[in-house]
Amino acid sequence: LEALRTILENFDGCGLKTTATSLVFGEGNSQAQIMFVGEAPGADEDRMGRPFVGVSGQLLDRMMEAIGLDRKSAYITNILPWRPPGNRNPSPAEIAICLPFIERQIELIEPDILVMVGGVSAKTLLGRSEGIMRMRGNWFEYASPGLPSPVQGRAIFHPAYLLRSPAHKREAWIDLLEIKARLKSLS
Ligand code: URA
User: Fold this and answer.
1) Is any atom of ligand 1 closer than 6 Å to the C-beta of 42?
2) Cβ(121) to ligand 1 under 6 A?
3) Which of 32, 65, 105, 169 is the 20 to 30 Å CA partner of 180?
4) How does residue 187 score in pLDDT terms, banded at 50, 70 and 90?
5) Long-range pairs for 101-104 at CB < 8 Å and ≥24 separation?
6) First to last CA, the chain
């Protein structure tokens, strides 16, 4: 993981690096059974150089806590390690450039369960075109050449979305309980 971080620090192939303040690499338990992958750092993450430390991160912490997880038991990262300026949506080219790095990060963590936080993460990692509304509520297999076997994947609503649309917290809760039960059955 440290070697991957160094590679990203020295990588000049993504223009987002020039506008970002920090590289936001993954953090948490590198032996974790569960890994959360968000979209991209926001302003707080860019300032601190850490994933999910702003308001959405605080809700993600509470979502993890609700199923007995925290940053010591889980690993948290993003599809993009640099903040898109003004929090604009990342372009397909930026996502494609950063994809091999997140794929490698997943291989190095080798979790039992991969939680894709939000539509961008789910679409990118599962290579599917449906929106998050259709993808949530189901289990998927995430496979990659460097993983010994496919990982169980679950897409959940992004906490930033839940903050804007609290009515969807009910479905998020259902997904979290599913994840909790699957974690238990796999351990
Ligand atoms: N939103 C994300 O997707 N990731 C972060 O790290 C912060 C906000």
Assistant:
1) yes
2) no
3) 105
4) confident
5) 101/4, 101/7, 101/8, 101/11, 102/37, 102/77, 102/78, 103/144, 103/146, 104/4, 104/146
6) 24
pLDDT in tens, 36-58: 999 999 999 999 999 999 999 99
In degrees and rounded to multiples of 5, residue 157 shows phi and psi of -65, 145
Decide if pLDDT at 111 tops 90.
yes
Verify whether ligand 1 is closer than 6 Å to residue 77 (CB atom). no
Give the pair of three-digit tokens for residue 84.
């898109």
- The pLDDT value recorded for residue 144 is 95
**What ligand 1 atom has the least distance to the C-alpha of 52?**
6
Token pair for 106: 């997943």
pLDDT single digits (tens) 11-23: 999 999 999 999 9
